[in-house]
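Quick note —
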Amino acid sequence: MVDFGDSGKYQEPKFIWNQTVGPTGLSFLNSSKLGSKYNNDMFVGDFHKGRIYDFHLNEQRSGFDLHGSLTDKVANKNLELNDVVFGEGFGGITDIKTGPDGNLYVLALHEINDPNWYSADCDREKINNLTHTCLSFSTSPIQGTIFKISHK
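Predicted structure written out below.
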């Protein structure tokens, strides 16, 4: 274990994915630009499935306010994540930030030669009656996109 001295302490994980999603960037949305429902939520991006997860925090902001099959703080199956999936189809998310305008910005990568962004060799699961797969990149050129997430 790492000794943090007086500057910090180790805590057990607050959430566990039992299936690899490759969590990457996260941002606390300190804005009501997406509506008051999302103000101060924690948004987490993943690289493998191209999803953004929306985690509501408890009133003390010390943990997640999870419901249903996620009350145990473990996603045993991807289907359990339906309640926290905010958006999907972004490609491999590498970062999420709240911009100075209060909107959420997402940086994602995808292969130029693959308009579907997904690879057939990855595990498939149905979510909301749509098939989604993990991302798999080849050696072809990769480009990135910055998405601005804003309220209609």
